[in-house]
Amino acid sequence: MALTPAAGGGDPSTSPLPIQAPGPVNAEVQWDGFDPQTYVRHNYADLRADDREFLRRTRDFFAGSKLSGARCVDVGSGANLYPALALLPFAHTVDLCEWSTSNVCWLRQQVDSYDPMWDPYWQVCAEHPAYAALTDPRRRLARVARVTRTSVFSLPMHAWDAGTMFFVACSISAHRSEAERAIARFLRALRPGSPFALAVMLGSAGYHVGRRSFPAVSLARAEVVAGIAASAYELDVHEERPRPPLRDGYVSMLLTTGRTRG
Protein backbone atom coordinates (compact mmCIF):
# COMPACT_ATOMS: atom_id res chain seq x y z
CA MET A 1 0.00 0.00 0.00
CA ALA A 2 1.43 3.39 -1.00
CA LEU A 3 1.58 6.05 1.71
CA THR A 4 0.46 9.54 0.67
CA PRO A 5 0.61 12.92 2.47
CA ALA A 6 -2.43 13.95 4.45
CA ALA A 7 -4.91 16.22 2.70
CA GLY A 8 -3.77 19.83 2.75
CA GLY A 9 -0.14 19.13 1.80
CA GLY A 10 1.31 18.34 5.23
CA ASP A 11 4.82 16.92 5.72
CA PRO A 12 4.49 13.16 5.08
CA SER A 13 7.17 12.42 7.69
CA THR A 14 4.91 13.84 10.43
CA SER A 15 1.48 12.91 9.04
CA PRO A 16 -0.28 10.00 10.72
CA LEU A 17 0.12 6.72 8.85
CA PRO A 18 -2.99 4.85 7.74
CA ILE A 19 -3.96 1.97 9.98
CA GLN A 20 -3.73 -1.35 8.16
CA ALA A 21 -5.82 -4.31 9.20
CA PRO A 22 -3.76 -7.43 9.87
CA GLY A 23 -3.56 -9.78 6.93
CA PRO A 24 -5.41 -13.09 6.84
CA VAL A 25 -4.48 -16.15 8.81
CA ASN A 26 -4.13 -19.38 6.87
CA ALA A 27 -7.64 -20.64 7.63
CA GLU A 28 -9.20 -17.47 6.15
CA VAL A 29 -7.66 -17.91 2.70
CA GLN A 30 -9.67 -19.48 -0.13
CA TRP A 31 -6.97 -21.96 -1.11
CA ASP A 32 -9.28 -23.94 -3.37
CA GLY A 33 -9.28 -20.91 -5.68
CA PHE A 34 -5.55 -21.28 -6.32
CA ASP A 35 -4.90 -21.71 -10.06
CA PRO A 36 -2.00 -24.17 -10.47
CA GLN A 37 -1.78 -23.81 -14.26
CA THR A 38 -1.30 -20.05 -14.04
CA TYR A 39 1.16 -20.46 -11.17
CA VAL A 40 3.27 -23.00 -13.06
CA ARG A 41 3.36 -20.94 -16.24
CA HIS A 42 4.65 -17.91 -14.35
CA ASN A 43 7.03 -19.63 -11.96
CA TYR A 44 8.39 -22.77 -13.63
CA ALA A 45 7.75 -22.79 -17.38
CA ASP A 46 11.38 -21.70 -17.81
CA LEU A 47 14.07 -23.05 -15.51
CA ARG A 48 15.51 -19.98 -13.82
CA ALA A 49 19.07 -19.76 -12.54
CA ASP A 50 17.93 -19.43 -8.91
CA ASP A 51 15.77 -22.56 -9.06
CA ARG A 52 18.56 -24.39 -10.87
CA GLU A 53 20.97 -23.55 -8.03
CA PHE A 54 18.48 -24.58 -5.34
CA LEU A 55 17.81 -27.85 -7.16
CA ARG A 56 21.52 -28.52 -7.65
CA ARG A 57 22.27 -27.97 -3.97
CA THR A 58 19.29 -30.05 -2.86
CA ARG A 59 20.32 -32.83 -5.24
CA ASP A 60 23.89 -32.91 -3.93
CA PHE A 61 22.70 -32.81 -0.33
CA PHE A 62 20.36 -35.78 -0.64
CA ALA A 63 22.87 -37.71 -2.77
CA GLY A 64 25.37 -37.36 0.08
CA SER A 65 22.90 -38.30 2.81
CA LYS A 66 23.15 -42.09 2.37
CA LEU A 67 19.41 -42.48 1.89
CA SER A 68 17.97 -45.68 0.48
CA GLY A 69 14.42 -46.98 0.39
CA ALA A 70 13.29 -44.00 2.48
CA ARG A 71 9.79 -42.89 3.28
CA CYS A 72 9.89 -39.30 2.03
CA VAL A 73 7.57 -36.31 2.15
CA ASP A 74 7.19 -33.06 0.24
CA VAL A 75 5.05 -30.66 2.28
CA GLY A 76 2.92 -28.03 0.59
CA SER A 77 3.81 -29.33 -2.86
CA GLY A 78 1.42 -26.89 -4.51
CA ALA A 79 2.23 -26.70 -8.21
CA ASN A 80 5.93 -27.48 -7.99
CA LEU A 81 7.43 -30.89 -8.76
CA TYR A 82 11.14 -30.27 -8.42
CA PRO A 83 11.44 -30.89 -4.65
CA ALA A 84 9.82 -34.31 -5.16
CA LEU A 85 12.16 -35.03 -8.08
CA ALA A 86 15.11 -34.34 -5.77
CA LEU A 87 13.91 -37.16 -3.47
CA LEU A 88 13.08 -39.67 -6.19
CA PRO A 89 16.16 -41.96 -6.37
CA PHE A 90 16.20 -42.58 -2.63
CA ALA A 91 12.49 -43.03 -1.97
CA HIS A 92 10.41 -46.08 -1.28
CA THR A 93 7.47 -43.67 -1.13
CA VAL A 94 7.07 -39.92 -1.58
CA ASP A 95 4.02 -38.35 0.08
CA LEU A 96 3.00 -35.10 -1.61
CA CYS A 97 1.04 -33.25 1.06
CA GLU A 98 -1.08 -30.35 -0.16
CA TRP A 99 -4.16 -28.56 1.16
CA SER A 100 -5.64 -26.77 -1.88
CA THR A 101 -8.04 -29.07 -3.73
CA SER A 102 -7.12 -27.50 -7.08
CA ASN A 103 -3.44 -28.19 -6.41
CA VAL A 104 -4.23 -31.73 -5.28
CA CYS A 105 -5.96 -32.38 -8.63
CA TRP A 106 -3.01 -30.89 -10.51
CA LEU A 107 -0.53 -33.03 -8.56
CA ARG A 108 -2.45 -36.24 -9.22
CA GLN A 109 -2.39 -35.52 -12.96
CA GLN A 110 1.33 -34.77 -12.88
CA VAL A 111 2.18 -37.84 -10.82
CA ASP A 112 0.57 -40.07 -13.46
CA SER A 113 2.88 -38.63 -16.13
CA TYR A 114 4.42 -35.24 -15.56
CA ASP A 115 4.53 -32.46 -18.13
CA PRO A 116 7.63 -32.21 -20.39
CA MET A 117 8.33 -28.77 -18.92
CA TRP A 118 9.78 -30.60 -15.89
CA ASP A 119 12.34 -32.43 -18.02
CA PRO A 120 14.96 -29.66 -17.69
CA TYR A 121 14.61 -29.91 -13.91
CA TRP A 122 15.27 -33.64 -14.03
CA GLN A 123 18.22 -33.02 -16.34
CA VAL A 124 19.78 -30.91 -13.57
CA CYS A 125 19.22 -33.80 -11.16
CA ALA A 126 20.70 -36.29 -13.63
CA GLU A 127 23.99 -34.38 -13.72
CA HIS A 128 24.73 -36.34 -10.51
CA PRO A 129 25.42 -40.09 -10.93
CA ALA A 130 22.98 -41.05 -8.17
CA TYR A 131 20.18 -39.54 -10.27
CA ALA A 132 21.50 -40.50 -13.70
CA ALA A 133 21.15 -44.14 -12.66
CA LEU A 134 17.38 -43.61 -12.58
CA THR A 135 16.59 -43.79 -16.28
CA ASP A 136 12.79 -43.44 -16.14
CA PRO A 137 11.87 -40.79 -13.55
CA ARG A 138 8.28 -40.52 -14.82
CA ARG A 139 7.60 -44.17 -14.21
CA ARG A 140 9.34 -44.03 -10.84
CA LEU A 141 7.31 -41.02 -9.70
CA ALA A 142 4.06 -42.66 -10.77
CA ARG A 143 5.02 -45.74 -8.74
CA VAL A 144 6.20 -44.16 -5.49
CA ALA A 145 4.28 -40.86 -5.20
CA ARG A 146 1.12 -40.56 -3.12
CA VAL A 147 -0.86 -37.31 -3.18
CA THR A 148 -2.82 -36.51 -0.03
CA ARG A 149 -4.89 -33.51 1.00
CA THR A 150 -3.09 -32.65 4.22
CA SER A 151 -2.38 -29.38 6.02
CA VAL A 152 1.14 -28.65 7.24
CA PHE A 153 -0.47 -27.99 10.62
CA SER A 154 -1.85 -31.55 10.75
CA LEU A 155 1.28 -33.53 9.91
CA PRO A 156 1.92 -36.57 12.13
CA MET A 157 5.00 -36.68 14.32
CA HIS A 158 8.15 -38.60 13.27
CA ALA A 159 6.48 -40.20 10.25
CA TRP A 160 9.11 -39.76 7.49
CA ASP A 161 12.82 -40.39 6.87
CA ALA A 162 13.50 -37.37 4.66
CA GLY A 163 11.59 -34.32 3.51
CA THR A 164 11.33 -31.10 1.56
CA MET A 165 9.22 -27.99 2.06
CA PHE A 166 9.73 -25.27 -0.56
CA PHE A 167 8.20 -21.77 -0.40
CA VAL A 168 5.44 -22.80 1.99
CA ALA A 169 6.04 -21.28 5.43
CA CYS A 170 6.45 -17.79 3.95
CA SER A 171 3.40 -18.02 1.68
CA ILE A 172 0.45 -19.46 3.62
CA SER A 173 -0.38 -16.62 6.00
CA ALA A 174 0.33 -12.99 6.80
CA HIS A 175 1.23 -13.95 10.37
CA ARG A 176 4.78 -14.73 11.46
CA SER A 177 3.58 -17.12 14.16
CA GLU A 178 2.01 -19.37 11.53
CA ALA A 179 5.20 -19.40 9.47
CA GLU A 180 7.15 -20.41 12.57
CA ARG A 181 4.61 -23.10 13.40
CA ALA A 182 4.72 -24.48 9.85
CA ILE A 183 8.50 -24.86 10.00
CA ALA A 184 8.31 -26.54 13.41
CA ARG A 185 5.57 -28.94 12.30
CA PHE A 186 7.50 -29.90 9.16
CA LEU A 187 10.67 -30.67 11.11
CA ARG A 188 8.74 -32.54 13.79
CA ALA A 189 7.14 -34.72 11.11
CA LEU A 190 10.57 -36.18 10.29
CA ARG A 191 12.29 -38.87 12.35
CA PRO A 192 15.39 -37.89 14.34
CA GLY A 193 18.44 -37.56 12.10
CA SER A 194 16.39 -37.20 8.92
CA PRO A 195 17.86 -35.07 6.11
CA PHE A 196 15.68 -32.20 4.90
CA ALA A 197 15.67 -29.23 2.54
CA LEU A 198 13.58 -26.16 3.35
CA ALA A 199 13.23 -23.04 1.18
CA VAL A 200 11.50 -19.72 1.82
CA MET A 201 11.15 -16.31 0.27
CA LEU A 202 12.62 -13.54 2.42
CA GLY A 203 10.95 -10.16 2.74
CA SER A 204 7.83 -11.29 0.89
CA ALA A 205 4.87 -8.91 0.78
CA GLY A 206 2.32 -11.25 -0.80
CA TYR A 207 1.81 -12.56 -4.31
CA HIS A 208 -0.75 -12.91 -7.09
CA VAL A 209 -1.85 -15.98 -9.01
CA GLY A 210 -3.88 -14.73 -11.92
CA ARG A 211 -6.41 -12.26 -10.55
CA ARG A 212 -6.25 -13.59 -6.99
CA SER A 213 -3.96 -12.31 -4.26
CA PHE A 214 -2.49 -14.55 -1.58
CA PRO A 215 -0.83 -13.63 1.70
CA ALA A 216 2.81 -13.86 2.67
CA VAL A 217 4.90 -12.87 5.65
CA SER A 218 8.08 -10.80 5.49
CA LEU A 219 10.64 -13.16 7.02
CA ALA A 220 14.28 -12.27 7.71
CA ARG A 221 17.20 -14.64 7.26
CA ALA A 222 18.28 -14.65 10.90
CA GLU A 223 14.85 -15.52 12.27
CA VAL A 224 14.32 -18.32 9.75
CA VAL A 225 17.68 -19.92 10.47
CA ALA A 226 17.17 -19.57 14.23
CA GLY A 227 13.77 -21.24 13.98
CA ILE A 228 15.18 -24.16 12.00
CA ALA A 229 18.24 -24.49 14.24
CA ALA A 230 16.00 -25.06 17.25
CA SER A 231 15.03 -28.42 15.75
CA ALA A 232 17.96 -29.31 13.49
CA TYR A 233 21.73 -29.59 13.16
CA GLU A 234 24.43 -29.68 10.45
CA LEU A 235 22.74 -26.73 8.77
CA ASP A 236 23.91 -25.35 5.45
CA VAL A 237 22.33 -22.04 4.39
CA HIS A 238 22.37 -20.52 0.92
CA GLU A 239 20.71 -17.28 -0.21
CA GLU A 240 19.88 -16.28 -3.77
CA ARG A 241 19.05 -12.72 -4.82
CA PRO A 242 17.51 -13.26 -8.26
CA ARG A 243 18.23 -10.78 -11.03
CA PRO A 244 15.72 -10.15 -12.44
CA PRO A 245 13.37 -11.11 -9.61
CA LEU A 246 10.64 -13.65 -10.22
CA ARG A 247 8.03 -11.11 -9.16
CA ASP A 248 7.68 -7.88 -7.22
CA GLY A 249 7.48 -7.90 -3.46
CA TYR A 250 10.31 -10.04 -2.11
CA VAL A 251 14.01 -9.66 -1.36
CA SER A 252 15.64 -13.06 -1.86
CA MET A 253 15.26 -16.83 -1.62
CA LEU A 254 16.78 -18.90 1.19
CA LEU A 255 17.58 -22.62 1.11
CA THR A 256 18.49 -24.50 4.28
CA THR A 257 19.52 -28.14 4.44
CA GLY A 258 20.28 -30.18 7.54
CA ARG A 259 19.17 -33.02 9.78
CA THR A 260 16.45 -33.08 12.39
CA ARG A 261 17.09 -33.39 16.10
CA GLY A 262 15.39 -35.99 18.30
From TrEMBL:
It comes from the Bacteria. Keywords: Methyltransferase, S-adenosyl-L-methionine, Transferase. GO terms for biological process: methylation. Residues 1-22 are annotated as: Disordered. InterPro entries: NNMT_TEMT_trans (IPR000940), SAM-dependent_MTases_sf (IPR029063). Signal peptide: none annotated. GO terms for molecular function: methyltransferase activity. This is Methyltransferase.
